[in-house]
Amino acid sequence: MYRRTLCFEASSVTSLTIGSSRILLSASFRFITFEDIAHLEKRIQKMLTFTKEEGVMKELLLKIGRELGRLGLVSSHSGNLSIRTKEGLLITRHKAMLASLSEEDLVEAPLFGQVEGASSELEVHQSIYLNTEAKAIIHCHPPYAVLLSLYLEEIKPVDAEGKHILQSVPVVEFKESVASKEVAQALPHYLKTKKIVIIRGHGSFAIGDDLEEALMYTSSLESSAKILYLALLLQAIVEKTPKGGVS
Asked: Is the pTM of this model over 0.70?
């Protein structure tokens, strides 16, 4: 049975040049079949699909960065985001302004080793991806949650939604809490059973199947932390107020 062919290409050519003339001595050819074309089309389609997926990932990183800024969960140059990719991860650059991210602020990185320009927390992100099921990570510094982490061993929401989404958020402490190997080695242990943890006096790390899920845990933590702080403050005021009220 013969295969249909479209055309052929020379795979090797032998020639002899005499003066200004070139004489063809021999040549061998490889036939290009429809199967070859189909295989090439599949490869091109795969490349286009990957490029499209990468574009969607970048757009989502920019969107979530802006949302973190809008919600007041980061200061001007703090925090970092990443998404797991087929080859490694896509992470924000060192000292990027999350509230006004551009594609130039995104860095492709492998799961091992440092990359110039990437966030200083790259090693922590790599370790989380290697040791948990996380597909996306948000690290930021939500003010009320950070405040409570200075005094509590865990943040237990008192509001109904916080109880439903978070149950409780462990507060973990490290000698060096910022971009340290200690954090990179220990944090995945907590994130195997919790979607979000907070490092004492530093900030939260949230994971999810996508960035939107990680954002949900991050914003829920800050909302519940604010309610808890105000509840504790009100409780202290009530306890100090005479039973007869203020005269």
From this structure: yes
